[in-house]
Amino acid sequence: MLLSPLTRQFGTAIRRQYGLSATGGWAQNRYYVAGESDGDGSPFALSADEVDRLQSIGQTVPGTVRHPQHVGNGNLTANIRLRPVAAISVDLHGLHVSQDLRAPAFVNESANSFGLYALQAGLIAPGDAFQVQTVSSMSRWLGSVDVAWTPIQALTVTGSLGQDGVRFASDREGGPGVLSESVVLNSATRGLAADVNWGPRSVELRSHIGLETSRVNRDSTECASGTSPNCTSGAYRKFEQFYQQRFWSLVLEQRAWIRDRLELAAVLRRDHFKEHDQTATHPAIHAAWWGTPVRVRVDYGSTSRRPFFFPKPERTKELSAGVDVTTASDRLTVGGTIYDMHSRAYAVAVVIPSGGPPPLMTGTIGNRGIELYATARLIDRPNATLTVETNAWGNRNRLLSMSLPIAVPGPGASQERSSVGLPVGGYWAYRPPTFADANGNGIIEPNEASWSNQVTWAGTPYPTQGATLAPQLSFRSIRVGTSFDYQAGHTVFNRSLWVACLDAHCPAAVDPRSPLAAQADALLSRFGPTTRYFEDGDFLAWRELWVTLNVPPRFANALHVKSASVTLAGRNLHTWTGYSGISPDPYAVDPLFGEAEGFSEPLMPALPQWSLRLRVSY
């Protein structure tokens, strides 16, 4: 694949992190206060050639264009526990989180936008693209008061009050017109519960009853215009919405522990959503038996999502069973869980067979899978330990039924659909064109290839299997750890390659030595992507490596501190894969501005990160 102009605009980003915490108290009253601030530098650094080009045409190049990406975070936490009398405890919790972000606008484009792919193909100069930026800020306040009263040993009554407020604002800067958004979200919860412990000597019983009410208010505005700076003239779009939802939940729970061997639990939860006048009842049961060295558990339950977008709550039922085995020395633990989950989901039909308003479709989604894990202490000595943790998983996702016999397009527009019997949101692509090198010159010409408008299944964007391995070694005052992540079974849409071929920039469009099949695909790419642009996404990633040195006590005493340590850590160190595009990892780059998780090819791979941390306790 041709070298992308974007790859020449990367630099070394420096991350800074500062934190301070304090803990103390008196009598039975305690407090904890902590604050932290961190920031990431820009992985984008405008190349010298681009800076010279902009200056040669009379443009200034400020620092925000030379290094156009910035992430800053801050948080402040306070927890206070008060015991005015022995039977009453009061917990006060407060948290403030803030974040400010700046990034080139193409970083925040949706998976269906051609802007970032045009940049990858060289159709937009990086110096021009870096000047149009999205700037956003977010602040969030969370507070709660929890009171527990224990008048007698067997009875505890609890009450809680909680408040959560979020403010978010985002603006597009540096381009014509305006694109801005602001959201204010407030929620309040109230809870009252009682727990009673009772039962004979060999049986411990705990009964619980709880009532919770909640209110959510969302107030948002959006303004978009290609010409007007304030959405008052020309072609513009302005949207305002106020949304409120109130609901209450009643929970009844009974647990029993019999002779320290058998645990049984039954839960009944009833939810009522006032705005939609919908009520849902969810039962759940749990049973666990443990002996030496085996523990067996079985769970069944149901839950539902609040009906934010549709008038009915989605409902999910799950049955799972698991077993854990631990050796007598506790040096080896292995276990596994199998599950079968069915979800009843809703969607608005896009294709309407008989015309009229779009009906509300219902469908059933099934997920079956297995999870295995093991933890082993291979070395367990006073001055040296070696622990290895590993897990593996597999999942089979299927759309089991749908109320209308039509495919439902997914977040990837025409390339993703949901069809009965196949994974949800799977990829569909056109069959490769037929071709023949009639004149024998080694080049497929327009009259030597014909297009097929038939589509076929191209794979699922979601990994279906995976595993992790995380060993950790301690030797005296040094600790070393690392982790590896393997994911497979998914398909990646190499959209950058398709767009490059669409604009005659890919190797198959310009190199006569390319395979004839690739030339035919590139020649007719304007009709749509074929299966050639959908590749296996299997990969093994070296996620993390860290080394911690604990300062010996005699040196800590000389520094007049309680303890101190230094940690050097690296993340995203290497990826092994057969994928030919940018990255096969569907979680390579987190969305910065609240965009939905995109499973098309990311803008850049997960970038290597190195950090050095000094921790001192007084």
Structure description:
By secondary structure, the chain is mostly beta strands. The chain is 8% helix and 58% strand. The protein contains eight helices and 29 strands. It has helices at residues 48-56, 63-66, 115-120, 126-129, 495-502, 507-510, 516-523, 553-558, and strands at 15-26, 29-40, 70-85, 88-104, 133-152, 155-173, 178-198, 203-225, 236-258, 262-273, 278-290, 294-304, 315-326, 332-348, 360-381, 384-402, 408-410, 413-418, 426-430, 434-435, 449-450, 455-459, 465-475, 478-488, 491-493, 534-536, 539-550, 563-577, 609-617. The strands form four sheets. It has a 21-stranded antiparallel β-sheet. A hairpin with a 4-residue loop joins strand 10 and strand 11.
Please identify the structural class as seen in this structure.
mainly beta
- End-to-end distance, in Å? 55 Å
**In angstroms, what is the radius of gyration?**
29 Å
Total beta-strand segments = 29
| Low-pLDDT residue spans | 588-600
User: Strand fraction band?
Assistant: over 45%
Shape: globular
Number of separate helices = 8
Question: Which range best describes the helical content: under 10%, 10-25%, 25-40%, 40-55%, 55-70% or over 70%?
Answer: under 10%
Taking the sheet with the most strands, its summary is: 21 strands, antiparallel
Mean pLDDT: 85
